[in-house]
Prior knowledge:
binds 6-O-phosphono-beta-D-galactopyranose; two-stranded antiparallel sheet; 6-phospho-beta-glucosidase; alpha/beta; 14 helices; 479 residues; 8-stranded parallel barrel; TIM Barrel; GH; globular; GH_1_N_CS
Amino acid sequence: MMRTFRKDFLWGGAVAANQLEGAWNVDGKGPSVSDMCTNGSHTTPKRLTTTIEEGTLYPSHEAIDFYHHYEEDIALFAEMGFKVFRTSINWTRIFPTGMESEPNEAGLAFYDKVFDCCKKHGIEPLVTISHYELPYALVEKYNGWEGRELIEYFMNYCKAIFARYEGKVKYWLTFNEINAGTMPFGAVLSTGTVKGYSGPVTEVPDKPQERYQALHHQFVASALAVKYAHDNYPEYKMGNMICFVTSYPATCNPIDIVENQAHMREVNWYCSDVMVRGEYPAYAQSIWDKHGVTIKMEDGDAEILKNGTVDFYTFSYYMSNVISANPDANNGAGNLIAGGRNPYLEASDWGWQIDPMGLRYSLNEIYDRYQIPLMVVENGLGARDEIEADGSINDDYRIDYLRKHISEMKMAVNDGVDLMGYTPWGCIDLVSASTGEMAKRYGFIYVEKYDDGTGTLARRKKKSFDWYKQVIATNGEDL
Ligand code: BGP
């Protein structure tokens, strides 16, 4: 008998505040690092600016205006049968510079409305506390997470939202894709170690010392938040969130195998191990040595990490990668992580290599390592969608992508993995994190908003909307 998804499987969708809310300076909200990013495209990188340039388009400023459309959007999610809705809280709605002593009531009130609306529809929120929404003022003052001071500001923020949303939110993730900090480009939005930098996000000068120090502070902050939640709100379930890009050795030559092992450790396991096991892995020193990094730790940090391990492990999964011992070969695929082309896989229009079976493999690898419940909190195909003359949007390519990934998740469950849920990314079209485009769409719901900033913001269902509704209704049986 095949094992399949558990009865209480959390089907839903995922978004992030900065990519859909808009209202970037409304009701007291301050600018986040994402609000300082211009639009870009697959071929022209978006830019980070140190001030808001007049006449420049900043896609997060309006995004899809979920701030004023949340009721309509959540009703559509409910129509698909969502059990869970993953979103983030925009830190700068609650603490506009990150440094205030009291939270901004209007910001808190907005999320009350969002979570109440979810509750009305029987949808459980899954809340990312920090999803590329670091207050820009903390970048200017402390070089982002390089400053140890941020731990305290983060805790103030956590205490405010934990207290306010008690009874409304049960599932929390501390940092979105925390391991983005192990990659120079990823660090722009995640660690915020970009003080004074303006320019293309892909050309930010790499400062590993700052990135790894920042990650240490994020680990400590996450562990403190987890412990605080466990001590004060026993019903809270606390998770991590990793950008999991499994990689394969380019050949069976042992030098490629060992190279890939080192890559997997640095990019995927380093952050995971600290957050699940509560201590740095033995190989951490070799990563620090490679980058000439010395981490400043304080007395008590080791104990904090040990006492703040997560209850469940979540990750995004879009693609896999290929790693060779020959660095020249590691340049073919992926927007975010350099790697080689895999001749057995096709890639999306943005060069992300589509690998459903890699999801089964990854789930097994992660579960073998940690034995705690897993959740796939991002997955999906960024693609251009066309509206037909009759108004329909026939996104069969998206259905195909999701169907194959869900099938492989089912195989992983049959392999023995404890999988809690699945929230495909961008369940409603939103701004792309890597390029700032609207054209890179993921949604079951189309939003009439375009790359030049125009559009009516009207919502319409794509073909995948009814397909996903049926998937949920049959608990993944009818794909
Ligand atoms: C992840 C981020 C999301 C999201 C997604 C898709 O890295 O957590 O914020 O945007 O990737 O990426 P993109 O928007 O670049 O297509």
